[in-house]
Amino acid sequence: MIDRAGARAREAYARAHGHLMTKPPHVRWLYIAAGLLLLLVTLFALWIALLFPLTPGIEDVKQARVARATVVVSADGRQLASFEQGVQMKVPLSQVSPNVVNALIATEDHRFYDHHGVDFTRIGGALVASLKGDPQGGSTITQQLARNMFRDEIGRARNINRKLKELITAFKIENTYSKPEILEAYLNTVPFLYNTYGIEAAAHTYFNKTAAQLNETEAATLVGMLKGTAYYNPVTNPERSLARRNVVLGQMLKAGVFDEARYRQLVKRPLRVHFARLAEHTGRDDHFTAYVRRWLVEWADKNDADLQQDGLVVQTTLDYDLQQAALQAVKTQAGALQAIADVDWAHSWPINATTTQPYVDMRGGVNPFEYYWSSHGELLETFVRESASYRKAVDGGENPVAALKRLKADRDFMRQLKAAKSRLEAGFLAMDPNTGEIKAWVGSRDFEREQYDHVSQAARQPGSTFKPIVYAAALEKGIAPDHPYLDAVTTIRFADGTEWRPTDNSGTTGRQLTLRDGLVYSKNTITAQVVRDIGVAPVVKLAQDLGVRTSKLAKVPSIALGTSPVTLLEMVNAYSTIAAQGEYRKPVFVRRITDRNGQVVADFGQQTPQRVLSQESAVTLIDMMRGVINRGTGTGIRYRFGITADVAGKTGTTQNNADAWFIMMHPNLVAGAWVGFNDNRVTMRSNYWGQGGHSAILLVGDFFKSVLGSGKISADALFPGGHKPEPVIRHEEAPPEEDMEEGGDMQQEGGPPADTPQPPDNEAPAPPQPELQQEGITLPPPNDA
């Protein structure tokens, strides 16, 4: 078969060749040229056919003209962020000055109304001019729109493939839209520098007016920029811009837009630019919207959504009013704590005040951290050696000693380094335990200055805020709240032969304390015995079940004292599970996504809770944690903020005051805060202010006082078995606060106060409790609830 086909082909070729040779030479060449041309046309058509599927489809083109950015909104519909490209202010063509349209067509595409997307006459002319050494562009307005609409699909490379894709897309656009619609789409998408897109935004940016108000020279200036926005920028290159503007006016004259006399008037006018860079009105990111944005990008990839064009509305769970209350609490209270750190480390002597105002008043008169840096010279040198500038210098060949000396002598570098290391940071999170919805999220004191998120990214030791998980595991094992433990330093031996001897900074009483009081007064000695009795594995398992599901927990005994780093998001989630009486719900931050027509695309609001802690144990644990607020390490909630709602919580502080935590549960809202320095080698100087019960508690207390007072959450809501405590009565004279210092695996929040019910008389007497002088108004001890 193959031989027969080959023979036939050879015969056909011989006949064609014989026929061709009978023709005169000039006719033969015409036949050959025609054949080559036909071959080229066939190959070109094949090329176009192969490229056609790689260009945007008709539906994509339809969608692109009405492109609308995805917006992120709060639970009540207030815009939080947008996926627009820069500043865009879209307007219909009817709200664009005719001067703009005339200038655009006269300059960029004077045969706009005569072609069907591609002007082959202009392309030919541009090719001839380029061959003569005068490079010209041959793109029509429609082709430029194709590039603006579909940058990724068409590409940016300067090659024939990109140009052909552009031509094909231009034909599709012309087949889909009318000429006015193409002009409108083009003028709303064209870039004008300064992250500004579209003629309306450009008019506001460069001339402080609307697109409808642009006169001939202003329109010519903006259209003139399209040849090269940076090169013809009227702000930075006014002379070039003026010359280019006059070229555009000349093109408008040739097109008959105005007469010669008018042209002469216009070219004499100065630019008269009124530059004012527009704020990004689409919503500035914060840590919450940045988190949502990252999640949305992944969601969009999986669901074939275009966040810049589909016009989706992403309704988050964030409560706008609660978020404002959280922002204000962090700003006010973390700012006060920064003043405390600045003043305490300014001199060789500490201030020892127990209210924030003295520090705030003194802040302006001290050199912050002056004493710290003078007394921590080795640490400061370590910070220099760890800096990117030092590593870059050494990697570049500079002598390490010389690099260190040079950087230490660089005042600006040292000032910035010290400022970064001595800046106190904070994280705050609030969520609804009944739904898992995030209601407030503050990742740092200032997002613009610190994008590192202390809610979801920063893993820090939780200190004693981890202890409720230990006590929950004990309750699940059947250990009763009134089970007695000896408050004494005990050597705990484990099956593998290891020994552990945790201590309390506040000392021990040598008496029997109940499981309940071990949690209320955050006793390391008691907690260690509890984990000895129940084992480490159940504690780790329960922590993961409750919500600590991202951080890797170390399966060691000291985990009971909060030595294994976790995030604030995980800890607040775990407390929310406790507040929900043992039902776990994963954190929800997006409630639903709807399309531009309001149709639900995805719904995340409903989830089935998972029982991870028995209701009986959860209710008992909540009651034990009420004691933390009423008579333990969290009494500042009652004393400082006068909160009388039925709340429960736990404080936490780690070694050397590196991390301060406080998390509080209300039946309808759980909120937690972390306070510390990014580098945990820098700490609060004051053992008083270094405690979570005196620092992080300020952020949570301020927040709850605001939202309870405004009625955003009910002050009358009760946990099972709860009742609303009596209002705190402020007396002028009252016992001073106890110095309940918290700590990590070898430190302790503090022992029970002196008025703790005493064990039987045959027990050893309790040592005297240390007192701390209270400044300002003193308060009575709270009643146990």
From TrEMBL:
What's the protein here called? Penicillin-binding protein
Q: Which residues form the Penicillin-binding protein transpeptidase domain?
A: 427-658
Report the source organism.
Answer: Telluria antibiotica
Asked if the Swiss-Prot or TrEMBL record annotates the protein with the keyword Signal, the reply is no
Compositionally biased intervals (Basic and acidic residues): 723-734
Protein family according to the UniProt entry: In the N-terminal section; belongs to the glycosyltransferase 51 family. In the C-terminal section; belongs to the transpeptidase family.
Q: Which domain of life is it from?
A: Bacteria
Reaction(s) catalysed by this chain's protein:
Preferential cleavage: (Ac)2-L-Lys-D-Ala-|-D-Ala. Also transpeptidation of peptidyl-alanyl moieties that are N-acyl substituents of D-alanine; [GlcNAc-(1->4)-Mur2Ac(oyl-L-Ala-gamma-D-Glu-L-Lys-D-Ala-D-Ala)](n)-di-trans,octa-cis-undecaprenyl diphosphate + beta-D-GlcNAc-(1->4)-Mur2Ac(oyl-L-Ala-gamma-D-Glu-L-Lys-D-Ala-D-Ala)-di-trans,octa-cis-undecaprenyl diphosphate = [GlcNAc-(1->4)-Mur2Ac(oyl-L-Ala-gamma-D-Glu-L-Lys-D-Ala-D-Ala)](n+1)-di-trans,octa-cis-undecaprenyl diphosphate + di-trans,octa-cis-undecaprenyl diphosphate + H(+)
- List every stretch annotated Disordered: 717-785
- The residue ranges of the Glycosyl transferase family domain are 77-252
Compositionally biased region (Acidic residues): 735-744
Q: Assign the protein's first listed, main location to one coarse class.
A: membrane
